[in-house]
Amino acid sequence: MDYTIFAVIIFVVALLVVGGAFLIRPRRTETPPEPPAGEREGGAAGTATAEPDEETGERERAPGTAALAEAEAPAVPEIETPPPSAGRLVRLRARLARSQNAFGQGLLSLLSADKLDESAWEEIEDTLITADVGVTSAAQIVDSLRTKVKVLGSRTPEEVRGLLREELLAQIDTDQDRAVHTEPHPGAPAVVMVVGVNGTGKTTTTGKLARVLVGDGRSVVLGAADTFRAAAADQLETWGSRVGAPVVRRDEGADPASVAFEAVARGVDDGADTVIVDTAGRLHTKTGLMDELGKVKRVIEKKSRVDDVLLVLDATTGQNGLRQARVFAEVVNISGIVLTKLDGTAKGGIVIQVQRELGVPVKLVGLGEGPDDLAPFDPEAFVDAILEGGPEGAGTE
Fold first, then answer.
1. What's CA 271's distance to the chain center, in Å?
2. How many separate domains does the chain show?
3. What is the reported pLDDT for 180?
């Protein structure tokens, strides 16, 4: 027998045995670090918490400890308590007075002139038209002022201010019902639809209106029926979460009418006072979309009455906004106007013109970008702000 071959075989077998033993050797377990003193002493009772992980910042959950489960629960946003609607426009009056300085002071200056000839009256009328009062209303104001000035003869500044205030209030019509109807019905909530074109601040107005109502003690459900933009529903959820108002939404592209119906159904189930439905910012040139808006209203009425249809208009858009208003009024029977960005234009006369054009009152006005800068429209506070013509006489916010 060849001893050399035999030796080689024995050597190979020995290597295999030694290598196998090394591969199957149990891995040495590391001794876990000693827990903190507080955990050693109180861990059994579930009263202590583990140190947070260095990377994630999360604490290790101790089994059976309710305190730790609460600590790891997602944070619930703090519910805000908005201020009530009463007196909001008075608080924001200085802001309005600053924007209407040229309008109010210009009229007062012209009317206080020593001589009011034909040229002066034409300038007064032009000032009114420039402020978007409208041609018809401007002519009526001038005619009435001319008659009263002729009767009075001499005019003190106080008399001039009083005459102008009286005429502006007459054109705005202080007798109109400007309340947003949010009182619930037996077994069903009040329903408010918010409509308007893109860019007017419609979704923001919906969220701010929810704050107004919550501030007045109402419970609110929001319907995100602008299903053409997912961002609109996200925005509405942000507004709702801040005041504890649930939001009914569906995926982008869903049927807006079905979302509106579900929102009202949720309001009925929750016993909510008011449901506010935000609709898509439809272009008034697209007849199909406008027809769909009418469908939303009809579907809502299968569940509850629609108490208010608020058209949101940008006060800075002037005549273009009025054209939009006319088309919306033909489709959904507008019951009130919300004028946004009124603090950003000197053309406060738009309040008078839009009411004359549509035959419905301005109910709410936006006077800033803050969450509580939406206010119920108060004709007297509005006219007084115009005639104050500056922050020094407008009081404090």
1. 23
2. 2
3. 95
Instruction: Read off the pTM.
Output: 0.77
Is residue 266 assigned to a domain? yes
Task: Select from 236, 243, 287 the least CA-distant residue to 260.
Answer: 236
**Pair of tokens at residue 234:** 């996200």
Helices (H) and strands (E) in the chain, counts: 16, 8
Sequence letter at residue 171: Q
C-alpha distances in Å from residue 168, one per residue of 131, 159, 190, 352: 12, 14, 33, 8
Indicate the residue among 172, 205, 239 that finishes a domain: 172
Residues annotated in a binding site for GTP: 196-203, 278-282, 340-343
Task: Express each pLDDT in 293-352 by its tens digit.
Answer: 889 999 999 999 999 999 999 988 877 788 888 888 888 889 999 999 988 887 888 899
**Would 83 be classed as within a structural domain?**
no
Burial of 255 (0-12, 13-18, 19+ CB in 10 A): middle
Could you identify the residue written with the tokens 């947003």? 180
- 223 and 95 in one domain? no
Q: Are residues 231 and 343 in the same domain?
A: yes
Q: How many residues does the chain have?
A: 397
User: What CATH code is carried by the domain that includes residue 116?
Assistant: 1.20.120.140
Question: Which are the contacts of 62, defined by CB distance < 8 A and separation ≥ 6?
Answer: 43, 46, 49, 50, 68
pLDDT tens profile 117-161: 899 999 999 999 988 898 999 999 999 999 988 887 767 888 888
CATH number of domain containing 240: 3.40.50.300
What gap in Å lies between CA 205 and CA 366, rounded to an integer? 8
Tally of CB atoms within 10 A around 229? 15
DSSP 8-state assignment for residue 161: H
Binding-site residues from annotation: 196-203, 278-282, 340-343
Q: Mark whether 240 and 313 lie in a shared domain.
A: yes
Q: Is-contact 184 216, C-beta < 8 A?
A: no
100: domain range?
A: 88-172
Does residue 227 sit in the same domain as residue 139? no
